[in-house]
């Protein structure tokens, strides 16, 4: 655990929990060797094996280290740009509420977008409403590119 000295006290960061990187690497090898790539489209929400990640990057949960991911932009049959979803309400400039998905409040974490391989896709959950998807796209563009004159 990382420690910071503040005065005479030592503080432990809550983000310094033990993570099983070796176990995740074994799982990741199996995912990499899997030949099946599902057919997918933009606006779809999938359970996705995002794994165990570094620092504040969102981890997956459970045995498969998965979490819901919204497909923002497919690039080809192998890769897409996706955004991690959180299963409870959050407020702030980096959060965009999507409504209820699988009986939970879903929020897109605008600071957790990344390129993902389609081998990570496990199961399709549903498709996001087109109007909400466009609004999310605008919010994401403003978050990622605040220096561009977006209208």
Write structural notes for this entry:
With 151 residues, this protein is of the alpha+beta class. The protein has a single domain (36-144), classed as SH3 type barrels (Roll). Helices cover 19% and strands 39% of the residues. The chain has a six-stranded antiparallel β-sheet. The radius of gyration is 17 Å and the shape is globular.
Q: How many independent structural domains?
A: 1
Distance between the termini: 45 Å
**Share of helix, binned:** 10-25%
The string of secondary-structure elements, in order, is EEHEEEEEEH
Task: Give a brief description.
This protein has 151 residues and is α+β, with helices and mostly antiparallel strands.
Q: What does the secondary structure layout of this molecule look like, with pairings?
A:
Blueprint: E1 3-6, E2 9-12, H1 21-33, E3 44-49, E4 66-74, E5 79-86, E6 95-101, E7 104-117, E8 121-127, H2 130-144
Antiparallel strand pairs: 1-2, 3-4, 3-8, 4-5, 5-7, 6-7
List keywords for this structure.
globular, alpha+beta, two-stranded antiparallel sheet, 151 residues, 6-stranded antiparallel sheet, SH3 type barrels, disordered N terminus
